[in-house]
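Input record (one chain):
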Amino acid sequence: MEDVEFPERRKYPRKKIDRLVVLTKLSTINNENYTAAGNKELRARSVDISNGGVQIKNDEPVSISEMLKITLEPAGSVKIDPIGKVKWSEYDGDSGKYKIGVEFTVINTSDIEKIKEIVNDNQKRENRG
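The corresponding structure, as predicted from the sequence alone:
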């Protein structure tokens, strides 16, 4: 059987990034504003990031369509804390963790610029290597 190559569907380049992430589950108020749903924060690890979202590994499952505040502090940067919607979630038997794909829905311009710097720095290193 022949290998089939599928075109890249992602809108933004990604960078692998392994950092502590704090997830706060949110409740929606009037479809516009968000408030913390309870006081439980989940500690997780990032897998990769782009301007459009982040992949996370977590010990607990998170429901698809759940809204999360994602607090991520990359090395050498100020923290990034966008709000995102869980687009997919699956159990990874190899790591014993849940992999979660989160699409950013609320993100400020300075956070977008910080993510661009992270991704562009990675691409420059790959091009030199």
